[in-house]
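Hi U.,

Before I forget, here's the chain from the pilot set. I'm dumping it here mostly so it's searchable later in email.
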Amino acid sequence: MNKTMMDILACPIDKNYPLELFEIKEKDSMVSEGVLFCSKCSRFYPIIEDIPIMLPDELRDKKQEMEFLKINKDKLPEKIITKANPWHL
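Structure:
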C-alpha cells in the first residue's frame, strides 16, 4: 500500500478519517504488511501483501485475520491485539 493512500482512506463502517497506520514491513516507501486502525469504532484492517483489506465485518475472513494477529502479536499495539473489532486475541 502506498502511504499516500492515507490521505484518502476512511473507515468503511463509520467513515472516520484519518485512520492510524501501524507498519510491520515496509519496502520502497510502500507498506507491504501492517494494520489500519479506526480509533472511533476500534476496528482494525490488515494490510497483507501490499493490499489493505477494508471489508465490512460480514465479508471478512476471520481465520485469516486471527492468524495474522497471532503472527504479529509482538509487532502491534495491545489495543489491536486484545481489544480491536470485529475480533481480537
